[in-house]
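Bug: token stream looks shifted between consecutive jobs. Job 1:
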Amino acid sequence: MKRLFVLILAVCASVTALAQIYNVREMVAADMDKAAGCEGPYRYDAAPLTPSPKGYVPFYISHYGRHGSRYAWNDGTYTTIKRVLEAAVKSGSLTEEGKAFHDRYMAFYREPLINTGDLTELGYRQHAAISAAMVAHFPEVFTPQGTFLARSSTSPRAIASMASFCTSLQKSAPKVDISMNSLHTNMIVMNPTEAPDELLQKYRSDFKVPAPDITTMVASRHQDDILDRLFSDRSFLEEIGGRNKFFHELFMLWSGYHNYYNGDLFGNVFTEAELVDFWEAENYRLYLSHSSDRFQMIPLLKDIVECAGRAIAGGGSGADFRFGHDTVLNALIPLLNINGGGFQPDSAADVKYYFQNFNCPKAANLQFVFYKPKKGEGEILFKLLMNESEVTLPQLQAKEGPYYRWADFAAWAEDVIASH
């Protein structure tokens, strides 16, 4: 409990500094891929890695990866927009911009609709590239004597992601033998809130909801302007269920369509300033729905600690690979307090400084990389990579650079588990 108290004091002291250092909206405006948030494709922008600590060698990796690029997860994204555009045609309400978008959309939607939820070709390539880079960065881990286990949630896109990752890994390290499974009993680890009822566990949460609701503010600020670009008369919208659902799905489509389509589908439907606002609204919405589940990820935290304990006790090399979903990573990142993201702000406007959904694009991943002394016994060190970039854990005292003592993390995790 003392460690948790120290963590709270340290993070509170850094609130003002973080808000001053990071202008997150400017970051998003400078890279519109980030405006796509969790729906955007993986970004290969990791910085070079810090060399291994002197006298240490990597021997084990504990990984969690989100499935790769997919079509929209819900066919309502495609059918809602289609229904609205067809109603606009019927009522004669399309502007010239609306007619152009209608024509592009009608030529576009059929294949994505049929493939709703499926992993795209880009999704396969993402996981193949991530595993190849892992072997290139940490070849000492991938020995023929090592123990390698890959597990996924029961989702077909997670299973396909696991298969692509492992197939690529075996091309890079052909003597490695990997076991794979996608059992329903995995779900308490791979997607704890969606586990079978017999396995579900509840943990005490101290999550607090910051106000006011940014999503409502953004909608009121921009909906009329965007609707006027598309429709000369909006009355038909009320007859088919209103405009909020349409707007949500329109932004979801914009966020995700580059996972499977290379053309410009939207033209001038949105301005960049509007997209930055919509990003902040969606970021806030996901903070409420995903980050609020941080303590429900304790079964995954337990699995990380227990698997690492077995690997350390075994004295050999190996890896545990896990494949699942954004709902898990967006809760696990604040649970682990990565880069100070465990802080819970009181103001909705401050959420973006501590939670950024663009940290969880398609194929997002966390990698705990473990190191042991080359000779003799000694303390086990690790570093944590998020999307292949080194990150910090402010609740721990680093030994050097991005490297932490595993014993410190295990003790901190024990405190978190006991407290919730």
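Job 2, same session, no restart:
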Amino acid sequence: MRIKSAHAALLTLAGCAPAFAWELSPRLELEVRGFPGVRSGEPLTGSVAGVLEGFHDFSGSERRRFNFDVFARADSQDASRTHADARDLYYQYIGRDFELRLGNRRVFWGVTESRHLVDIINQSDLAEDLDTEAKLGQPMFNLAVIRDTGALDIYLMPYQRARTFPGVDGYPQLPFPVAVHEAQYESRQGQHHLDFAARYATSWGGFDLGVAVFNGTAREPLLRPCLRRGSGYVDTDNGPNCDIVAAAEASAPQSPLPDDLTPLLQALGLFPSDDEVRAEIEADVRRNLVLVPTYRRLRQISLDLQYVNESLALKLETLLREDSTGRSTAAVAGVEYNLGDVGATGVDIGLLAEYLYDEKRDGLNARFTDDLFLGARVGLNDEAGTELLAGVIVNRPDFRQYAFQLEASRRLTDAARLSLDARGFADSPADSPEAFLDGQSLVRLTLEWFF
């Protein structure tokens, strides 16, 4: 885990502070994951994770606070999932009508359930989970100006966090290894480009509105197939070569025999045929293929809006983005209707329906180009706090392609909680970017202890 100099200074400052006014909330997690239909040799994997979160008020004052949420996991199967991160590690000063925050933070924007479209500040930790909800801490300077009419947040981010990915033994099983350390950036400053974002949020009546702008390095990379560094192909001595066809042709073996003799020897079976040579080259190219993350510059304006009237909630997230490939739009719009105390049983049920559209069809966007999400949220309102969320995403034109997910949790004691997650994919077109997900089901059981 890399901690920048500003964060190291914060740790030093915290270490010199008086030993009072510390609030600590440790958490331990044991996890077992199963992969029905995916793995044969290793059907189950296990991991252990720990979280230490809390805060320290300097001199007993709530105006100056040091906040932290440090996470670490050790996984039995996937080396890339054995990792750690300072998700939150920042200094906070609370003024009369403003707040100043400096350090690593997680910031969430959005109102919809199926896809957090406008959530742009933090990088997704895909090594932790494919659903993009696990986030890495983002180094930032954040000033929030608070008025009765709303709040304006301004973000300056001097360093972009690269996206994490599952390893070759991880889940989901990607078509090729991801060369995380070979990441390429459109900006000359690479990861050190100074990103800017701002968001204005306000509420009136039953409406909650957020309008935001972002100008910086995109969080989601384009994964380009390339020949790995040192593979022996032309121009791979100092890095990956993404011009695969030219590299393969330049590295193809040349026959030392006269042109008129080669066909005769091939006919006698004494020299490999053209098809055999081509198949050997294709197999070698495939063995040396890696996916190289490429991060473009991105400019984006977004809006998130929610209207709540008793049991009904209407939700919208939409954006206009521009990068080197051009402009594109995307939106998620939906409704949630809550049924309370169904049949006098104490059970609450929330019905969810959303439409997902994305004009851009590369990367993970390809999963949400024209889709419907249908789901339900159930709360038993029992002493154990049992909750369940289930949903399915179907492709609208043919209503065949789908992804489903189930999340359930229940307290075992005041200090322990058991959670179950299940996820699966099916029927993606063979030539679609997400086709590799088909059949990659996951069942996860998690036991958490709170201290």
